[in-house]
Amino acid sequence: MIEPRAPAPPRSAPPPVAASAASGAAKLPVRPATGRFLVLAGVFVCAACGLVYELELVALASYLIGDSVTQASVVLSVMVFAMGIGSLAAKRLRRHAATGFAAIEATLALVGGCSAMALYAAFAWTAGWGGVWSNGPRGLLVAFSLTIGLLIGAEVPLLMELIQRIRRQDAGGAVADLFAADYVGALVGGLAFPFLLLPLLGQLTGALLTGAVNVVAGGSLVLGLFRWDLTRRARWTLTVANLTVLGLLATGAVLVGDFEHAARHAVYGADVRVALQSDVQEIVVSGGTHGRPFHLFLDGRLRVDGRDERRYHEALVHPAMAGPHARVLILGGGDGLAAREVLRHPGVRRVDVVDLDPAVVRLARTDPALTRLNGHSYDDPRVHTVCTDAFAWLRTAPQAAYDVVIEDLPDPGITDSTKLYAQEFYGLARRALTPEGRLVVHAGPVATRRRTYWTVETTVRAAGLHTRPYRVDGRNSPYAAGPDRTRGTDRAARDWGFVLAARTPPRLALDPAAPRPRTLTAASLAEDARAAQRTRITGLPASTLVHPRYAG
């Protein structure tokens, strides 16, 4: 028996690789399996770009504003909230999923790619205007986080619609495929930012390149795979829009060098001599030649002002050296200035400097202005350097090895430094001290940050040490006095606070055998201690690693 043959399909039927328009499926130039793979590849790339934008905002905000935990919390919380709103809003675009997705990717590429330049420009040229900006570029940061979050959130329902148009499947399977590609892309973007984009290209160029990748991926996916879902006018419009975005990003990349140069001068002044990005931080040196004052900035914060650094370093070092001081440990102080003051004391046999950034130490050895300022302290054979994290180094330091421990570290209110002002850290420093040893801590300004200062003092006492707090007045400068101050003197600190500590109650004095400091006397130190005591805040809890108490 011969079975009847199936009737041939009519000549008007679509080719096998294109699904029926009547069923709502897309007409594809490739097989459905290939189309599905290309959509998931697009999800992967767009997710990687989205996370790079997110990390870029966090990094730049931490650099410009400070307090990385707060800035990361602001960016992440606003962005996640906006993603939810964007996902809801995109439901209205599902009927035009291809066009909507292409438009969103072009907008996201432009906004995300230019976000770093916009934030840096606003910081450089409006930081002195006061008002809202006096607290940092938080408003602009929130605006970019909100916009980028809205656009990233809008991608998800549109991509889901595009996947389902290729081949219908159960919702659970489609969601699993989509989010698998999304999360793997986020992993790649998260690793590429710190290990590839930031060290090789920097923040600005890295963001611009990410935007270019984003617009190419989104545009190619829609104009290549879903072009038959678009009208002729929509194809031309999207093509022009994508090329325009690419052109703007390329223009930004070409001009980024001149932009950075102009912005850096706007922030640091016209005397910038050195500007480099180490593995740890941005290092900028200005002045120091032709009678101009020397300034050293680390990640935008003034660490050394040549006009008043001596007062700071003499107040930090000399009271701690009024006792046994054959072996001295300096934590931080890679600029060599604290070592300069230590070496003025007779009887010093060894000075160990532990600083995180070898680039700072290298600069202190080679920059003519800085070596002149630090008295070529690194040329002294008694000075030894270790470039590593101070906390990690103290954990393996020999017990009772040092007569003096000097903590010349960034302010405790900077989140990255909080662990260096924790009770556990002071416990490790106490273990490294000899029974008669003395510890001195730079604890930030007293007048403008009393609570932070007295939290440091409380935390040192909680580590089992007796304390003697004191402060010294600073001197005004275009960037305000002292380490870790940003530009603008309206709210700048005018003093430095210190805490001298030992196993027995320490005496605030000067070493009579050492050359007399230029800016300190025994009488002024006593008055400085009384001035600090008048600001005391009692009842404060100690700061620990798991419960930091310092405000940014």
UniProtKB/TrEMBL annotation:
It catalyses: S-adenosyl 3-(methylsulfanyl)propylamine + putrescine = S-methyl-5'-thioadenosine + spermidine + H(+). PROSITE patterns: PABS_1, PABS_2. S-methyl-5'-thioadenosine binds at Q281, D355, D389, A390. The active site is at D408. The chain crosses the membrane at residues 37-65, 71-90, 102-127, 139-163, 175-198, 204-226, 238-257. Spermidine binds at H313, D335. It is a multi-pass membrane protein. Its EC number is 2.5.1.16. Gene3D superfamilies: Vaccinia Virus protein VP39 (3.40.50.150). It is an enzyme of class 2 (transferase). Residues 253-490 form the PABS domain. Coiled coil: none annotated. Keywords: Cell membrane, Membrane, Polyamine biosynthesis, Spermidine biosynthesis, Transferase, Transmembrane, Transmembrane helix. Pfam families: Spermine_synth (PF01564). Catalyzes the irreversible transfer of a propylamine group from the amino donor S-adenosylmethioninamine (decarboxy-AdoMet) to putrescine (1,4-diaminobutane) to yield spermidine. Homodimer or homotetramer. Belongs to the spermidine/spermine synthase family. This is Polyamine aminopropyltransferase. The gene is speE.
